[in-house]
Design a protein that fits this description.
The chain has helices at residues 11-29, 38-64, 90-105, 109-113, 115-138, 140-148. It is mostly helical and 153 residues long. The radius of gyration is 17 Å and the shape is elongated.
């Protein structure tokens, strides 16, 4: 077994393709719901700030514990502190928040609506293979971590 997850889809692609598809639908068909409101801008600003803080915190911890910073790298340890204490996938949560932020800022109702398609592709293409890899590499330690910490929040 290679010491890295065997991804089916690279995470930014899993979320980016539905995002771009939704933006294309907005350009071609228009949106049935307008997102050009002050509320959608405020939500986008909150999400981008949350993304920056959350993912920044997770990346600092990963660097400190010398584990892979990019998807597909070797994991040296199971992190169970900081954002990893409340989510097994904090970087993916941040990426989803960024995806929604971009859809709101464009604005594209279709891109927001297609976010669950991207999340499903992310789960199938990256999360499931990563979980198999971690279970094979860390065994019971990873199983116990999964019992303590939810996949999302």
């Amino acid at each position: 077994m290679a010491d890295a997850p065997a991804y089916r889809i690279w995470p930014p692609i899993a979320l980016g393709v539905p995002l771009l598809g939704g933006i294309g639908m907005t350009a071609g068909l228009g949106d049935p719901v307008l997102l050009r409101t002050g509320t959608s801008r405020v939500v986008a600003i909150v999400l981008i700030l949350a993304f920056a803080l959350w993912n920044g915190w997770a990346l600092v911890l990963m660097a400190r514990w010398e584990t892979a910073l990019l998807p597909g790298g070797s994991t040296r340890t199971i992190l169970d502190r900081g954002p990893f204490r409340v989510s097994r996938n904090p970087l993916y949560l941040g990426l989803i928040a960024l995806d929604i932020t971009l859809a709101l800022l464009w604005p594209s109702f279709w891109a927001v609506l297609l976010t669950p398609v991207g999340v499903a592709a992310l789960w199938w293409g990256a999360i499931a293979p990563e979980e198999r890899y971690l279970r094979a590499k860390f065994g019971e330690e990873y199983v116990h971590y999964c019992v303590r910490v939810r996949r999302w929040l």
